[in-house]
Amino acid sequence: MNQSRGLLSVRAVVILLIASVVGCIAGTLAFLAGQPLAAAVLVGGGSAGGTLGLAHTLIQER
Length: 62
Prior knowledge:
The protein has helices spanning 10-32, 37-58. The two termini are 25 Å apart. It is built from two helices and no strands. 73% of the residues lie in helices and 0% in strands. It is elongated. It has a domain at 26-57. By secondary structure, the protein is mainly alpha-helical.
């Protein structure tokens, strides 16, 4: 039987999921703190990018 490999590895999916969750939480908190929507989106994107780099460093490949 041929087992096809997925488009992304499990490690990549976990890292992207963690970054997305942290970005959404940071953006929501910024918006609830009174920031305009555009600023909250920038906060969420920046925190997601930072988390992406951190998670990539911390979660090692096997």
